[in-house]
Amino acid sequence: MAALDSTMGPLLIGVILAAIMYGVSCSQMYFYFTRYSRDPWTVKLLVIAVWTTDTIHQGLISHSVYWYLVTQYGNPLALTQLVNTIIIEVFFNAFTGALVQSFFAARVWKLSGKRLYLVIPVVILILGEFAVSMAYSIKALYYKTFVDLVQIKGLSISINAFAAAGDVTIAAILCTILHRSRTGFTKSNTLINRLMVFAVNTGLLTSVCACLSLITIVALPDTFIYICFFFLVGRLYCNSLMATLNARKALRDVSTNDLSVSLRDIQPAASTNISNISPYSLSYKQYTGVDKHPVEEV
Question: What percentage of the chain carries pLDDT values higher than 70?
Fold first, then answer.
């Protein structure tokens, strides 16, 4: 085994950083339920499901570090062994990622005017990541030591590759759709630019984290640095979802004169109550003096 600084050290750091981001996601969830009480029950259920899997994941990785550093303190042999919770956590990381990416896939579906050729690649990447994660977890449960995991290193690499590819694809499609919806009006283009930056940022951190996990497992296979980054992926997915839902009011305020970027199925609201704002889009209406954006879907 490598020195503790490159094995249990990254593991501990990963749990601490994940716990900090878990606190942020809890705060965001509280903000969401107090500000967007009129969102569809399906979106509320999604938020609860993501938070639940995220909570379980935090508990599992916390137990893993406690077992290695406290329960098995003074037992060097234990540091080479696999505790079940460090494998089971992969299941819940996969569920969190699949739920959040499915939400963004639904956004692509709606904003693209239900164009299958844009949605299918995203769905394939989401299902691919989930399937590989399940295969990795099931196989790993039969192994006893970290050395045994070398046998399924390819699956571990594939998980991070699928995650990064999925996030980049979703962000690229959303930015393309928004770019093509430009009206030529300065204020409407300013809002669209903000939406494009926001779309990139929501997938940027998860993509970077997955890439760092991928790079470190290849470049530093005898360390647990890749596990540190992997611990954070689920937390970043949860926070990206909550940030997207909670940012609707702030982004809509950019268009205080009722600039509207809307979906086909969203009717302009008569009220400015933020709980009426769609979780899938931001409304923009009267800069052009017409009821609908010239491009039917944004």
Answer: 76
